């Protein structure tokens, strides 16, 4: 890697032509991939979450984007953006101009939100035209204008893709990819991994007591867990003063180097092939970068199709795997600037594709610049490795040594860019499902819609479908077969039971417990005799247990539900006597019970159910039909 002073001089030299060409091009769109900010470790006593440092990192990265693409030099901003995107709202966030996609990991979503706060900070009295403008902020009845809360906070739209969402394949193509997981296991069993394990074991054993004891066992502190160990140690080094004083920077650098070696092997190996689809080389370990490459083309194409109206700024937020994979696919990992791409990306690392046209091709109609033709559009690649003040935008040539590049990042036409990206990309999510033998819930339907049949597989890297095969070759997917099997099983058990209950006239009822056998009529007479002494609003059907019902002389029964009635107050029916109280003429004088709120339903015993008194098979009572 070049000395720091030499690199800084190169960056300073590179900044001069960038400023010089700022007025010579029109930027129409930018598509960026942003890595999340500093977070708590994946493994440890806490749940992975963005830290205040991580939020500040992404806020700063968003501000960098604003300085480059958005601001107009008015208000609190003294200068214009370096390369403003044509037609983008300079102050008020317009979600129709942005396309923001994130994984559903909480720390990634939070990173996206922090970034967008830096891109569009709070603004008072600023309203996007396509969101209703100042009219939407006006209250006609009072003739006043209202600002958004939090001093004009801007509310961005962030699409989050869970693993049940097909969009997740674009932002994290390595997840749910069975072929990728199988290839990763192959690497773990490889000679290369075994050699790294042996050569680094003593180093991991040396630092285990100081950093990992209590979180990782000594037997798992080795190269096979290189990334997780670096993830945990780097967090502790940054946030725990004791660990910071125990470890030194060289040890942290060594942990990062070993993690980088491991992750390059897992995400940047372009010769590893999946055994599931029969392709000669599908670069399965770089699947995350392959999806990212196609996604960038799709995002820029959306801007072109809409003549610059939508996708002015497309932002994807995710993890480091797509970045590492793309560095390998595009030749950056082995090119003249390979030193900038060998290590794990730092928090907030960002790569951008700029879609622009030259000033010499500019056509103006009135006050508007017309959107250029496709053959007048160019693309260049930029990378910012971190979020510190010394991390500047670097412009790099993609796919060096191919016909798609003239060795100048500023002269790559869109057609050259699109062709090179499609050569390494994956055309669709359906192709991804097929290539990965993916277990994602959305894959069976997408494969069917794309015309895939059993035994089909594209012979190309992009995975074209085999829709011409006969339908007789189709097979039911395992997921669909499982659903069908569950439904059939339920039907087999449920239908006989339903038929038995319906046609067998089976009725479930409580059977009264007694020492002898009684007929239904005998049991009924016994119960009526027991209840006759207590009477009440149920008449003969009332039970002794129904002590919370009062009956007035007018014959209206009601349940006590609390309030003053239960505190000895004067009830509305003052002549009512609670049933069970000692009154003249009552059979006993000791039936008085404290008044309390108890449901009559709760007090009724199950064995006093009235079902026994019903005749189910007798002749129904004839209605009286004469006057």
Features:
627 residues, alpha+beta, Rossmann fold, seven-stranded mixed β-sheet, 19 helices, 14 strands, disordered N terminus, His_Pase_clade-2
In whole angstroms, how far apart are the ends? 111 Å
Radius of gyration from the alpha-carbon trace, in angstroms:
38 Å
Describe the oligomeric state of these chains in a short phrase.
single chain
Give the name of the CATH superfamily of the domain at 4-15 and 28-173 and 287-424: Phosphoglycerate mutase-like
Helix content: 25-40%
- Number of discrete helical segments: 19
- Low-pLDDT segments: 1-22, 455-475, 514-538, 547-609
CATH second-level architecture of the domain at 4-15 and 28-173 and 287-424 = 3-Layer(aba) Sandwich
Report the portion of residues in β strands.
Answer: 5-15%
Tally the beta strands: 14
Family: Belongs to the histidine acid phosphatase family.
Pfam families: His_Phos_2
Transmembrane segments: 479-503
Biased composition (Polar residues): 516-534
What does this structure look like?
- The structure is a single chain.
- The protein is an alpha+beta fold and 627 residues long.
- The chain contains 19 helices and 14 strands.
- Among the domains are: 4-15 and 28-173 and 287-424, Phosphoglycerate mutase-like (Rossmann fold, 3-Layer(aba) Sandwich), CATH 3.40.50.1240; 477-506; 520-613, no CATH class.
- The protein has helices spanning 4-20, 52-69, 106-119, 133-136, 149-152, 168-171, 178-188, 191-212, 226-239, 241-246, 249-267, 287-305, 321-329, 414-424, 429-436, 443-449, 478-503, 520-531, 600-603, and strands at 25-35, 98-103, 138-139, 144-145, 159-161, 313-318, 350-358, 364-365, 368-369, 377-384, 394-396, 549-551, 557-559, 577-578.
- Strands 5-2-6-1-7-10-11 form a seven-stranded mixed β-sheet, sandwiched between helices.
- A hairpin with a 5-residue loop joins β12 and β13 (557-559).
- The protein is globular.
- The N and C termini lie far apart (111 Å).
- Mean pLDDT is 77; it is low at 1-22, 455-475, 514-538 and 547-609.
- The chain crosses the membrane at residues 479-503.
- Keywords: Membrane, Signal, Transmembrane, Transmembrane helix.
- GO terms for molecular function: phosphatase activity.
- Residues 1-22 form the signal peptide.
